Amino acid sequence: MIAAVLEDSHESWLEDAVATIIGLARAGQQFDADDLHREMRPAPSPKLPGIAFSMARKSGHITTVGYRQSSTKSRKNGVIRVWTATKEKS
């Protein structure tokens, strides 16, 4: 029972995250995981933001345009991808 609740929470967060990523892409600006972090509630698992970006990329909504240092304290200035909308999905 608890596993089912956790799984649903993960699925719900992923759906919301992918929708948020698509919204960021449609805004016409470059964005990164720090922007998703600011827009979304905390992920129930640290793996989920990466999965959400992969889902949006594989569905053709976003593409990588570069890299930058993260401003999120927990990332300790780690490198993150910079994304933009793909031409055919924007």
Q: Care to describe what's here?
A:
- The protein has one domain (2-85): Arc Repressor Mutant, subunit A (Orthogonal Bundle), CATH 1.10.10.
- Helices cover 48% and strands 19% of the residues.
- It is built from 3 helices and 3 strands; from the N terminus they run αβααββ.
- The chain has a 3-stranded antiparallel beta sheet with strand order 1-3-2.
- Helix 1 packs across helix 3.
- The termini are far apart.
- The model has no long low-confidence stretch (mean pLDDT 89).
Short structural description:
This protein is an alpha+beta fold and 90 residues long. 48% of the residues lie in helices and 19% in strands. Helix 1 crosses helix 3.
Strand content: 15-25%
Give the strand line-up of the largest sheet: 1-3-2
What is the radius of gyration computed over CA atoms, rounded to a whole number of angstroms? 13 Å
Distance between the termini: 40 Å
| Major sheet characteristics | 3 strands, antiparallel
CATH fold naming? Arc Repressor Mutant, subunit A
Q: What overall geometry do the principal axes of the alpha carbons give?
A: globular
Structural class: alpha+beta
| Helical run tally | 3
Order of helices and strands: HEHHEE
SSE topology:
Elements: H1 2-26, E1 31-32, H2 33-39, H3 48-58, E2 62-69, E3 79-85
Antiparallel strand pairs: 1-3, 2-3
Helix pairs in contact: 1-3
Notable features of this structure?
48% helix, 90 residues, three-stranded antiparallel beta sheet, Arc Repressor Mutant, subunit A, alpha+beta, 3 helices, 3 strands
